[in-house]
Design brief:
The protein has 835 residues and is an all-alpha fold. The chain is built from 22 helices and four strands. Its cofactor is Mg(2+).
Length: 835
């Protein structure tokens, strides 16, 4: 092990030791009488309410388990089908090498997530065991639930890389048949396999807690489960985003330095780039999607149990879960319908627009989901609360989110598609202005996209607010908050398809790389061999053309899926923050007998309460620190990767880079991904504790600020990066200008956009949700200590945690800087070895 890795291990030991000491002190002084919290929420008796004239709620929810099993069977059948597709041994060898490096990376991350879990477990034990005085058995079950959440996030991440590495080589080989349709169908099949397994697994686990965990601590299990999956997703998203962009930049820059082709097999950075495509664009999104789906559900369950009148809780809980179950079936049906339509249209076509059938699938799923939403709502809750129109209004609120799942991708395509005016403007600017104007034009696209995305989300949330004001308040307090949670729920209504079109991208990206790395064109007698063994004539020119064009479609739909997940995080955070507000403000009974928030305490949620305003300002600071810290890790890691590649690449006398050199680049990427992640995660961890202990209303402002700043920063960065990425693709495919100055300018823009779109922006999603979820426990812990007269201890702990956070803020830059190199080192690193 290298000295750097040893220092990292020592850092882990110091971190865990410090955290145990600080949190142990908190738990020691925290033995106070328990008070009500989310952990104490009790689920209602689902069998007490009947639907459809005879079935009770529990029986209906049990039917959901059967649907989940169907979804899992479908996903694994697609997995088996992909594995059996024909593939040439040269391509299979590359895809299996990519899988092995992905597996090694994922196992490294799992070990590190275990270290991070220990920190979270200490807080949960301190809170539930010492403050809530739960018996050890119940605390153990909560901890187990958090491990299940981590296992779920990591399990679907592993499934994602296995499916994608089956699909990448099969897609590359299928492209050589000379028809474009298989090049589209295989990545989509892989994506649907991942999407169905991911959503079905998440829904199955939540139904299990809902139906089989004792009702008096199911609430605590939901919180533990959500924190666990959020921890897993945060770590995999952050580390994966850093890894993939170190590798991508290191590989891409070689095209400019040495004037070599895309994915040149002699470049030892290409295997790391392929691994990164999966680590960042498959592992991260899979874990992120799993966590997003679960956390949104937990937020709605918590809201219903806190804010809805007791007699309506069963109906609303059964309703939202049946909506999820029905939408799984809607996604599956839409996929089959789309396959039949697109197969008839393109199966024998010589050319196709790869974006068109994906767009059709998204809109078809959205329309089918909306129709089923209204139908099932009418059947389930035709007269909830004695109002026979509320089912329409609640359906309309969900529809605001479901339509967003189709409207947002359309809006994003206006800034990231190869057909968009913004992307073409980036190319035009690059013709005369080179890399400088390329970068400026990309920034313009990102800023404009944030404007339109903000208006779209605000507009949809405004519509939801309007519907919520039409009688929904009779069932609950703070009906608009419930409406916003339903919008986030609707964003994910067509979850399998959203995940599928997102997963389409890493397969198409890898397929192009697998083709180049396999050197199949150089295999002796390959045309005769393929004709004999597989029964078709190879068409290399068309294959390369289809793979490049399809990669552009993959880039576009990766870009469209990101704002959906980001929007869900922000809108869903509103509902989670409400749980904290209820805890702080309290609920009273109004003169008309209706429950309302305590108006006196609610005054603290205004600009007139200075800590609340200060919290709003502080949250923005964290977002900008995070953006810089994550890109700093990419910058330093990419520098080390480029340094190694330039010193070791061999361009004469060899066909491909050595496996040992390729693995060394993967090692560099993993090393800096972990170094960056540990700094970032611990700043988020200790900042959450520090600000929760400082002042509860400061913390609420802090959470609101993180969500709002995070939304615009993430959308801006994701879409600027998407515009730069497809500008380069446009130059490569439509203009066929590889190796020119124009191409070099767009490569520079693409490498600037890499950490924008695939590191900082996408990782903001789990960071927002983890901070909010973990903040639930942290602020409750603070309130408990304050009520016990430990205010001075709280201020001390806040200062200690804040100082610890600043240590890692300092390390996130000064501990990650690119050290200057002397002339000799710079000169030697630029030399190219020859055979």
């Amino acid at each position: 092990m290298t000295p750097t890795v040893s220092r990292l291990d020592r850092l882990k030991q110091r971190v865990t030791g410090t955290a145990f000491g600080a949190l142990g002190l908190l738990a020691l002084f925290g033995g106070t009488p328990a008070s009500a919290s989310e952990a104490d929420l009790v689920l209602p008796d689902f069998s007490s309410v009947t639907f459809f004239g005879g079935l009770n709620g529990r029986q209906l929810l049990m039917s959901g388990i059967a649907v989940c099993v169907v979804g899992l069977i479908f996903g694994f059948l697609q997995y088996a089908s992909l594995q059996k597709l024909p593939v040439h041994r040269a391509m299979l060898e590359i895809s299996e090498l990519i899988y092995e490096t992905c597996k090694t990376y994922l196992m490294t991350q799992l070990k590190f997530i275990g270290v991070l879990w220990v920190l979270i477990a200490v807080v949960m034990v301190g809170y539930f065991g010492f403050l809530q005085h739960m018996e050890p058995g119940r605390v153990a079950i909560i901890l187990f639930a958090s491990l299940v959440g981590i296992a779920g996030s990591c399990g679907v991440a592993w499934f994602g890389i296995r499916v994608n590495t089956f699909a990448n080589s099969r897609t590359a080989f299928a492209s050589l048949r000379g028809k474009p349709y298989p090049t589209y169908a295989i990545p989509l099949q892989a994506g649907m396999s991942i999407g169905m397994v991911l959503i079905s697994t998440e829904l199955l686990l939540m139904l299990f807690i809902l139906l089989f965990v004792p009702v008096d601590f199911a609430g605590a299990c939901f919180i533990g489960f959500a924190i666990g999956e959020s921890l897993g997703a945060s770590a995999l998203r952050i580390a994966g985003g850093i890894f993939t962009k170190i590798a991508d930049i290191g590989s891409d820059l070689m095209k400019i330095v040495f004037k070599i082709k895309e994915d040149d097999a002699r470049n030892p950075g290409v295997i790391a780039d392929c691994t990164g495509d999966n680590a960042g664009d498959s592992v991260g999104p899979s874990a992120d999607g799993f966590e997003t789906y679960g956390v949104t559900g937990v937020a709605l369950i918590t809201f219903i149990l806190l804010a809805v009148e007791a007699q309506y809780r069963v109906q609303l809980l059964v309703w939202i879960f049946m909506m999820r179950i029905v939408m799984v079936l809607a996604s599956l049906a839409s996929y089959w319908i789309n396959n039949a339509i697109q197969g008839a249209r393109y199966k024998n076509a010589d050319h196709m627009n790869f974006e068109a059938p994906l767009t059709f699938l998204v809109w078809l799923t959205s329309i089918v989901s909306v129709a089923l939403t209204f139908l099932v709502s009418y059947l389930l809750i035709p007269d909830i609360g004695g109002d026979d129109t509320l089912w329409v209004k609640l359906s309309a609120i969900i529809t605001c989110g479901t339509l967003a799942g189709a409207i947002i991708p359309e809006a994003i395509k206006a800034f990231t598609s190869t057909e968009s005016r913004h992307v073409r403007e980036v190319v035009t600017a690059s013709r005369e202005g080179g890399a400088s104007l390329n970068v400026i034009s990309g920034l313009v696209a990102g800023n404009f996209s944030a404007y339109w995305m903000g208006l779209i989300i605000a507009g949809l949330m405004g519509l939801a607010y309007g519907f919520s004001s039409m009688g929904v308040g009779a069932l609950m307090i703070a009906a608009p908050v419930f409406a916003f949670g339903l919008v986030a729920f609707g964003f994910l209504g067509m979850g399998p398809v959203t995940i599928a079109v997102d997963s389409y991208g890493p397969v198409t990206d890898n397929a192009q790389s697998v083709y180049e790395l396999s050197l199949i064109e150089n295999v002796p007698n390959v045309k005769e061999e393929v004709q004999k063994d597989f029964g078709f004539a190879l068409d290399f020119d068309k294959g390369k053309e289809f793979l490049e064009e399809n990669d552009g479609a993959g880039n576009t739909f990766k870009a469209t899926a990101k704002p959906v997940l980001i929007g869900t995080a922000v809108v869903g955070a509103t509902t989670m923050i409400f749980s904290i507000i209820v805890l702080l403000v309290g609920i009273t009974t109004a003169a008309n007998g209706q429950q309302v928030l305590n108006a006196v305490n609610a005054q603290n949620l205004s600009l007139l309460h200075a800590p609340f305003l200060l919290g709003l300002i502080t949250g923005g600071a964290i977002i900008y620190w995070f953006s810089g810290a994550s890109m700093q890790a990419v910058s330093t890691g990419a520098y080390r990767a480029v340094e190694f590649i330039k010193a070791n690449i061999q361009l004469e006398g060899v066909e491909k880079a050595s496996v040992s050199d390729s693995k060394k680049v993967v090692e560099i990427c993993t090393q800096y991904a972990q170094k960056g992640m540990i700094n970032i995660f611990l700043v988020v961890f200790f900042s959450t504790l520090a600000f929760a202990c400082l002042e509860p209303y400061f913390f609420v402002g802090y959470l609101i600020s993180i969500a709002i700043f995070g939304l615009y920063q993430a959308v801006f960065m994701a879409n600027a990066g998407g515009a730069w990425d497809n500008a380069k693709k446009l130059v490569e495919t439509e203009l066929k200008a590889k190796g020119t100055e124009l191409h070099a300018a767009t490569v520079v823009g693409d490498t600037v956009g890499d950490p924008f779109k695939d590191t900082s922006s996408v990782a903001l999603n789990p960071v927002i949700k983890f901070t909010t979820l973990f903040g639930l426990l942290a602020v409750e812990l603070s309130v408990e200590l304050e009520a016990a007269g430990q205010g001075m201890l709280l201020r001390i702990l806040s200062a200690v945690f804040f100082l610890l956070s600043t240590v890692f803020v300092y390390r996130s830059f000064y501990g990650m800087r690119i050290e200057s190199a002397g002339p000799t080192k710079l000169e030697s690193s630029a030399q190219v070895k020859t055979a």
